[in-house]
């Protein structure tokens, strides 16, 4: 009786004979590694090449009606998988090594597996990665919005698939873990996560089973919004006391250059430069003040401007609202006010600003650092 592991034996012998110094690791994963294989299961295996020649070992074929894909993963990508920066973390986590070129290669691979275990202790980076995945879902929602009146079920299901897979992966990241099994087989794991958006089960069912494009679209939007809300709630768990002296160190010295550029643009009636510069400055200051107050950065996906509340409460001028290509003197005055007010605010919060009145002062300061 044919057994797929015999194929692995053949490939490993081939590696030893032809690519002994070109491939570091050969391993398999998936149903055979997890003990869930059926008679139709293919053998999922990969290798880590060491050089360009090693990549030539890649091969895809069908044998006895079963497909085989022997594909390369660079060390760099394997490391991203281990750090949850690539959605295929389970490939490394659940893999079983068939061959290693050396003990050093094997130890390096074992360290990747250990990284997967230890990474979940760092919660905030997981939330940042989850935010990035939710951002990908908005691309698919945008495509749906471009065809809001379309009754093309195939189109909507394609986009819904994109929303569903990116959102479910983001939920795994919010729970500081990875999806063990493939799509369709990981539902039980997902529903057992401790952190889930409201109505997840209902929304998944609607997206997968509805034949109404409008209903699918609506469910995708709700799922994305609820997952974003879950993310924001978890981010708030990482709020720490304000720490202006450390979090805002060097900020004023850097932002002042941009403030001066906007003032120059106002004085020369360069509205385009003023437009981009003013909005950028207010947004950047708002983000940094939010970070100084909370210890984490505001979500870029939040459609509100809640993160600018610290900016407003500090009495800093709303320079974006007074942009006017016909009269730029008001903006110029507001930028001057912003410069002065921001400087005073930071000093009152204990932020040290490096300001020198002469070259001699600078030289003295630098000599004291030697």
Overview in brief:
The chain is α+β, with helices and mostly antiparallel strands and 370 residues long.
Write up what this structure looks like.
It is built from 17 helices and five strands. The chain has 370 residues and is an alpha+beta fold. Helix 10 (200-209) packs antiparallel against helix 11 (213-236). The radius of gyration is 27 Å and the shape is globular. Strands 3-4-2-1-5 form a five-stranded mixed β-sheet, with helices on both faces. The protein has helices at 5-18, 31-34, 52-55, 75-82, 89-93, 103-118, 123-146, 153-174, 187-191, 200-209, 213-236, 244-247, 251-267, 271-294, 309-313, 329-348, 359-369, and strands spanning 23-29, 43-49, 59-63, 66-72, 96-100. A hairpin with a 2-residue loop joins strand 3 and strand 4 (66-72).
Describe the biggest sheet?
5 strands, mixed
Order of helices and strands: HEHEHEEHHEHHHHHHHHHHHH
Low-confidence stretches: none
Number of helices: 17
Number of strands: 5
Instruction: Tell me the distance between the termini.
Output: 76 Å
Percentage of residues in helical conformation: 55-70%
Strand order of the largest sheet: 3-4-2-1-5
Strand content range: 5-15%
Evaluate the radius of gyration: 27 Å
Mean pLDDT, nearest integer? 93
Global shape: globular
What structural class do helix, strand and pairing data support? alpha+beta
